[in-house]
Design a protein that fits this description.
0% strand, 77% helix, globular
């Protein structure tokens, strides 16, 4: 059994230990459930968006060829009838080819980002089991002090998604600036990825006061870990398949932070022997 004093860990050691855990039968089997759920929802979402997009182009093509064929109750058709030049451009083969390529390139990039966040939300339901298994394997002497009620967690989720939307819309103008657009596109998604994962895992191990201490004292260590995990999640399929691995990594980190914080608290409570008067 490994020691419970892990105050000097590194990201490399975390990843190595977590990989050893991940490639076990139990964790590999657990990976399949969030993977298939996320894949199914992502494909349905992308199919719906692509269907709406190409329906619009089809209507434009029909109106450009036969203006009287469009239903007066169809808003897209009405728009195309009122602006025949635009409808002719939208309905052309060249525009469809260019638009289709851009849709799947840009839309595919967003699909990866959205699927990563969706996978983070789904893995939240499996986090208690993963954390418990990591504790059983490596940290049986470190107590889990999960005290966050479900109502507080739901309020937290709503707040973070609200901040994400504000962050996302504020970054849209920077999408048209080369190089900066890469940062602008990923920054809101990294914010949500980091926030949801760390809160899910920390909430299973630390109490509220310990969370405040850890998120203040180990802020950059935690951010470095989640940034590495986020970069890994951008690799196609890894963002969906790797969620169990990501939780394992953070479980190790927060168990080690818990050991460090509790050891420090214990040392400060040791009563110094009284100095006898002369």
């Amino acid at each position: 059994m490994q020691k419970t004093d892990h105050s000097g860990y590194t990201e490399g050691a975390l990843l190595t230990k977590s990989l050893a855990d991940f490639f076990t039968t139990k964790f590999l089997a657990l990976t399949t459930a969030p993977f298939f759920i996320t894949l199914f929802v992502s494909l349905v979402f992308l199919y719906y968006l692509s269907g709406e997009f190409f329906d619009m182009l089809s209507v434009a093509a029909q109106v450009s060829q036969n203006p009287d064929a469009a239903s007066a109750q169809n808003e897209l058709a009405q728009f195309a009838k009122e602006y025949p030049i635009i409808s002719a451009i939208l309905g052309s083969f060249i525009f469809k080819a260019i638009a289709g390529t851009l849709f799947y390139v840009i839309g595919g990039g967003f699909a990866v980002l959205v699927s990563v966040i969706l996978a983070v939300v789904i893995i939240g339901f499996f986090t208690p089991y993963i954390v418990a298994e990591v504790q059983k394997r490596h940290y049986p002497n470190i107590e889990r002090r999960a005290t966050v009620p479900i109502s507080d967690y739901l309020i937290f989720l709503l707040k973070q998604f609200g901040l994400f939307l504000l962050f996302f819309f504020a970054s849209l103008p920077f999408y048209f600036i080369p190089v900066i657009n890469i940062v602008a596109m990923n920054a809101p998604f990294y914010f949500l990825f980091h926030t949801l994962l760390t809160r899910d895992v920390a909430g299973e191990i630390l109490d509220k006061e310990e969370q405040k201490i850890v998120f203040k004292s180990a802020k950059w260590r935690i951010a470095t870990t989640t940034f590495i995990l986020y970069l890994l999640s951008l690799i196609p399929a890894v963002g969906i398949l790797g969620q169990v691995f990501f939780v394992i990594v953070l479980a190790h980190q927060f168990f080690q932070e818990a050991a460090r914080v509790r050891k420090s608290q214990l040392e400060t409570t040791i009563i110094e022997p009284e100095v006898l008067p002369r």
